[in-house]
């Protein structure tokens, strides 16, 4: 694992002063050793605080973080700051909202922006930067990002040539969750091509199909972000049918949203999501997808009411407590196949920590969140992955997440970031999301894509 970069002068002065006054404050060095400022044996309440000395102490200060993270994952995120808070004195207060994308804009425009925001859409980050709300990060944040992430990942947090937001968690989206036991009991094999996937789908429909049992289950409800799981499905198919070049042209609007190649991909996804024989096992008809929470969408697999659920690696955190995730467990995941077995493109996504207010305590929290140490702490808690190069895959809480980390760390991986997250927010977090809801509810592909194309900003 790599050593964490030293805090910059903006924090170092305060940290040095704090270290003369408190037993706990200072630097983390996962490679052993310890970095400047304080004794490696300092403790707080039994916690070894030598790993946090570089951050200084800020007794009585608090930093608030706003995100779209809720439920189990929100509790896990809060747990990742336990020792940091104990040693630095900074109370980290996280608030998650299903209306995050809209509320972040409202709060910033109203002069009530959070200290830090975890933004999953580079398009939304670009909007907030260009509107003047996001502050430049401390040099210590930049140093951690340069150490831990690839240039591509740093680029997603860069706007108009200036770096603003540090990568945080990451995910591989190109997965299909299933029950290994159900597959084994019925003689089904994991498909390795798209044609095999569709053949398997039809076989399950023929052998298992009923009013309550279907090959697939799905859910795209997500509060104010309703629709994003459907955009993910479309993006995965575009990446498989058109390859990286067409995908990049589409995301960059070099070809229109209603280009025939995109129409073809949407209809391929619709062959599953809008087919009453194929969806929505254990829940309802195809239109029930629009009102089913993505959190709940895959749960019918546990009851044998559906066999497959396309959802990212982070879905592991949504399975009920006690669910065994593994190749011989209650649930596992396979790679969403490409057109051939040799084609394995990855759709990936991530989150970026942006600063909206200035203080040394805020800089300390943002720097910690940009470190490989925070990433390892969060990955070990469970349910998530990271593209940080310093993360140990063995800390992952399941075989699926371990595989995702290994895929993310491959230098030659053919991967593309979530398209709707890269698009202008008016489209990616707006017309694309709402258009997919209309599409699931019965609207024709051509009409929906025309509508999304018309929403693309002129400049």
UniProtKB/TrEMBL annotation:
Task: Say if the entry is tagged with keyword Transport.
Answer: yes
A Pfam family annotated for this UniProt entry? SBP_bac_1
InterPro entries per UniProt = Bact_solute-bd_prot1, SBP
Report which superkingdom the organism of origin falls in: Bacteria
Record's signal peptide: 1-27
For this UniProt record, give its keywords in alphabetical order, as a comma-separated list: Signal, Transport
- Into which family does the record put it? Belongs to the bacterial solute-binding protein 1 family.
Name the chain's protein.
ABC transporter substrate-binding protein
Report the source organism. Georgenia daeguensis
The upper taxonomy is: Bacteria, Bacillati, Actinomycetota, Actinomycetes, Micrococcales
């Amino acid at each position: 694992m790599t050593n964490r970069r030293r805090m910059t002068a903006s924090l170092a002065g305060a940290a040095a002063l704090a270290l003369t006054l408190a037993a706990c404050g200072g630097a983390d060095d996962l490679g052993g050793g310890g970095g400047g400022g304080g004794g490696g044996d300092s403790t707080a309440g039994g916690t070894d605080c030598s790993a946090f000395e570089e951050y200084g102490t800020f007794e009585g200060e608090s930093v608030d973080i706003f995100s779209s993270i809720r439920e189990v994952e929100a509790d896990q995120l809060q747990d990742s700051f336990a020792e940091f808070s104990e040693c630095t004195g900074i109370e980290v207060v996280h608030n998650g909202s299903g209306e995050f994308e809209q509320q972040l804009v409202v709060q910033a425009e109203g002069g009530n922006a959070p200290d830090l925001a975890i933004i999953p859409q580079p398009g939304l980050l670009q909007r907030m930067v260009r509107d003047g709300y996001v502050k430049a990060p401390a040099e210590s944040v930049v140093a951690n990002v340069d150490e831990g992430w690839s240039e591509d990942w740093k680029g997603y947090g860069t706007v108009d040539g200036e770096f603003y937001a540090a990568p945080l968690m990451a995910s591989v989206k190109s997965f299909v969750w299933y029950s290994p036991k159900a597959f084994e009991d019925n003689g089904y094999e994991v498909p390795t091509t798209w044609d095999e996937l569709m053949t398997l789908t039809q076989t399950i429909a023929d052998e298992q199909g009923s009013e309550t049992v279907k090959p697939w289950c799905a859910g795209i409800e997500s509060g104010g972000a309703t629709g994003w799981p459907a955009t993910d499905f479309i993006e995965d198919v575009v990446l498989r049918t058109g390859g990286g070049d067409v995908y990049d042209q589409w995301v960059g609007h070099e070809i229109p949203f209603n280009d025939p190649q995109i129409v073809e991909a949407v209809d391929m996804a619709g062959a599953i999501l809008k087919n009453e024989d194929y969806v929505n096992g254990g829940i309802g008809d195809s239109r029930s997808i629009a009102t089913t929470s993505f959190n709940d969408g895959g749960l019918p697999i546990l009851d044998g009411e559906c066999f497959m659920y396309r959802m990212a690696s982070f879905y592991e955190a949504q399975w009920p407590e006690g669910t065994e995730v593994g190749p011989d467990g209650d649930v596992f995941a396979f790679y969403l196949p490409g057109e051939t077995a040799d084609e394995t493109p990855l759709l990936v996504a991530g989150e970026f920590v942006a600063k909206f207010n200035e203080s040394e305590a805020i800089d300390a929290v943002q720097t910690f969140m940009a470190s490989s140490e925070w990433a390892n702490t969060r990955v070990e808690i469970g349910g998530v992955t990271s593209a940080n190069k310093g993360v140990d895959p063995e800390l992952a809480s399941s075989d699926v997440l371990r595989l995702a980390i290994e895929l993310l760390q491959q230098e030659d991986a053919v991967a593309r970031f979530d398209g709707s997250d890269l698009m202008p927010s008016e489209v990616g977090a707006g017309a694309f999301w709402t258009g997919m809801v209309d599409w699931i509810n019965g609207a024709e592909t051509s009409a929906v894509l025309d509508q999304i194309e018309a929403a693309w900003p002129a400049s």
